[in-house]
């Protein structure tokens, strides 16, 4: 158990809908990362937050947005969902935002778009 | 931008045999290098990482990796495979701008 929690574990929804994925980092970690894992794209870095502020951006679509709240939990919002958004979404956390810092991954949220 | 190449999406070894998983990266600056393991239906777990210093890095579960700058490689090895090593392995690179890049993964099968 990494100490990172993600809810829900599974999510099934329809195209065009909007969903919110939630992540609670390890106690003491200030940095949160979001990743998308799909069969055709592999593991893709989406976005990083540190202490409430966006720190780095990867391959995140404009239909997707994220935020980190004062209590350090983070939410990833996915809107106008398409079939291709079906994937495993991971959250990870680390103490610092430094590139050398170890990231601890949550168990993931499996999103299925029908 | 960085890129990470893992040669061989599937690797099979016999139990007790050497495990070698290959990772090459492209970088114009000294990178930070990581190996993660993913067991079925679980998140990724750090095996080991290289930041600075000694180029041979030892990780958990008997794994180690060597950073070779001249070859831009960070191959993962384990002298003797165990059936519990069967999993998906990911090489990752990060750079000071905090962009993280993962390889496409290598699925390791251990044959009894």
Sketch the topology of chain B as an H/E string, one letter per element. EEEEEEEEEEEE
Q: Over all CA atoms, what is the radius of gyration of chain A? A: 13 Å
List the quaternary state of the chains. Answer: heterodimer
Low-pLDDT runs of chain B: none
Helical fraction of chain B: under 10%
Ends of chain B: how far apart? 41 Å
What is the residue-averaged pLDDT of chain B? 91
Give the overall form of chain A: globular
* Helical fraction of chain A: under 10%
Note poorly predicted spans of chain A.
none
The gross shape of chain B turns out to be: globular
Helix-and-strand structural type of chain B: mainly beta
Can you walk through the features of this model?
The complex is a heterodimer of chains A (about 110) and B (about 110). Chain A is mainly beta and about 110 residues long. Helix content of chain A is about 0%, strand content about 55%. Chain A is globular and about 35 Å long. The model of chain A has no long low-confidence stretch (mean pLDDT about 95). In chain A, strands 2, 4, 5, 6, 9, 10 and 11 form a seven-stranded mixed sheet that branches. A four-stranded antiparallel sheet of chain A has the order 1-3-8-7, with no helix packed on it. Chain A has strands at about 5, 10-15, 20-25, 30-40, 40-50, 55, 65-70, 75-80, 85-95, 105, 110-114. Chain A contains no helices and eleven strands. By secondary structure, chain B is mainly beta. Chain B is about 0% helix and about 55% strand. Chain B is built from no helices and twelve strands. Chain B has strands at about 5, 10-15, 20, 25, 30-40, 45-50, 55-60, 65-70, 75-80, 85-95, 100, 105-110. In chain B, strands 2, 5, 6, 10, 11 and 12 form a six-stranded mixed sheet that branches. The mean pLDDT of chain B is about 90. Classes of the chains: A mainly beta (about 110), B mainly beta (about 110). The interface between A and B is medium-sized, with 25 and 24 residues.
């Amino acid at each position: 158990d990494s100490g990172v929690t993600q809810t829900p574990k599974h999510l099934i929804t329809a195209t065009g809908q909007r969903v919110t994925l939630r992540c609670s980092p390890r106690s003491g970690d200030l940095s949160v990362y979001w990743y998308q894992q799909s069969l055709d794209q592999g593991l893709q870095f989406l976005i990083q937050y540190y202490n409430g502020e966006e720190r780095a951006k990867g391959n995140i679509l404009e239909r997707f947005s994220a935020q980190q709240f004062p209590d350090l939990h983070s939410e990833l919002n996915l809107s106008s969902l398409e079939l291709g958004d079906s994937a495993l979404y991971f959250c990870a956390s680390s103490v610092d935002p430094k590139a050398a810092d170890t990231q601890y991954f949550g168990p993931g949220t499996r999103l299925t778009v029908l | 931008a960085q890129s990470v190449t893992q040669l061989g999406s599937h690797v099979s070894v016999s139990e007790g045999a050497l495990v070698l998983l290959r990772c090459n990266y492209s970088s114009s600056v000294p990178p930070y290098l990581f190996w993660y393991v993913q067991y079925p239906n679980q998140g990724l777990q750090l095996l080991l990482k290289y930041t600075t210093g000694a180029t041979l890095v030892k990780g958990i579960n008997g794994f180690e990796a060597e950073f070779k700058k001249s070859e831009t490689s960070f191959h993962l090895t384990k002298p003797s495979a165990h059936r519990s090593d069967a999993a998906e392995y990911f090489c990752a690179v990060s750079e000071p701008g905090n962009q993280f890049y993962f390889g496409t993964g290598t699925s390791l099968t251990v044959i009894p």
